[in-house]
Design a protein that fits this description.
about 270 residues, Aminopeptidase, two-stranded parallel ribbon, 2 domains, elongated, 12-stranded mixed beta sheet
Length: about 270
């Protein structure tokens, strides 16, 4: 693998600026972040990146690559063993091996659905013992805490349990949407939760899940179809995104079945 480095001037003269300008949207950077105290590099044709204060952003498209090999190249190139990495890739066969140089912090894919293309709900039959409704979180603080912690903290060590302080901050945050919080009940017992937030210019489905003992019974499919149908009827959101752990194959398959398509994948690595 060959690495080529650029400064801002050579970036322009080599007609590479537009490729790196796209980093602003891909990694949600400001234009100041993009051009201030930043070095640029290209590895082969399908791998581009920037190094900003020892945080390296890498975008990979249509390239089969070994992440470990790329990291070794960059560590040697910058003579810095303490680089941290955020990697996004599209249509690429990525090989990521365990390493004594870094720990994997995140490994997820971002998926997207145009609600105009969502037609599935009419074919879904909701059992009589199942009820789905929106709730006012401000009036159901304990319910929200209990259901979310039950869903995610039984086997997900990366997620911390939420508490009332967390929830009060969420209720007052810019991304919280009070009319888009959903609970799935079975025999009047809450067993599922999900909500929509607005992060910058995009709407995201977050905190979506079913309590472990009720998984594998089709409730997730019923719940997701209902939520998407309700969003579509409200006619305020056309494009919906979500992030899902790349190891959560059952969830990925559900989202694909519904109609979500993959946009890109993200891996973040922290040096040891």
């Amino acid at each position: 693998m060959e690495i080529k480095s650029f400064n801002l001037f050579t970036l322009v003269t080599n007609n590479e600026f537009i490729n790196f300008y796209n980093f602003k949207n891909i990694f949600e950077l400001s234009i100041v972040d993009l051009i201030s105290n930043t070095s640029y590099f290209v590895i082969d044709d399908g791998i581009r990146g920037i190094n900003k204060n020892s945080r390296v952003y890498i975008f990979i498209k249509d390239s089969p690559v070994s992440i470990n090999e790329i990291i070794n190249i960059l560590i040697n190139h910058y003579n810095n063993k303490k680089l941290n990495f955020e990697i996004k890739y599209i249509n690429s066969n990525i090989k990521l091996d365990n390493s004594d140089k870094y720990i994997i912090q995140k490994n997820f894919k971002t998926m997207e659905l145009e609600l105009n293309n969502f037609l599935n709900f009419n074919s879904i039959c909701i059992p009589e013992d199942i009820k789905i409704s929106t709730i006012d979180i401000s009036k159901n603080i304990d319910l929200r805490i209990d259901i979310q912690n039950s869903i995610f903290n039984s086997n997900d060590k990366k997620r911390r349990p939420i508490d009332k302080n967390y929830l009060y901050k969420e209720l007052n945050s810019r991304y919280f949407l009070k009319d888009y919080c959903y609970v799935l009940f079975k025999d009047n017992k809450p067993i599922g939760y999900g909500q929509i937030i607005k992060d910058k210019n995009f709407y995201y489905l977050v905190n979506f899940g079913i309590i472990e003992e009720y998984r594998g019974k089709g409730y997730g499919n019923i719940f997701l179809n209902y939520v998407l149908n309700d969003i579509k009827k409200k006619n305020e959101i056309n494009l919906l995104r979500l992030n899902v752990d790349n190891y959560n194959i059952s969830a990925i398959n559900l989202y694909k079945k519904i109609g979500f398509g993959e946009i890109f994948n993200t891996i973040t690595l922290k040096s040891i």
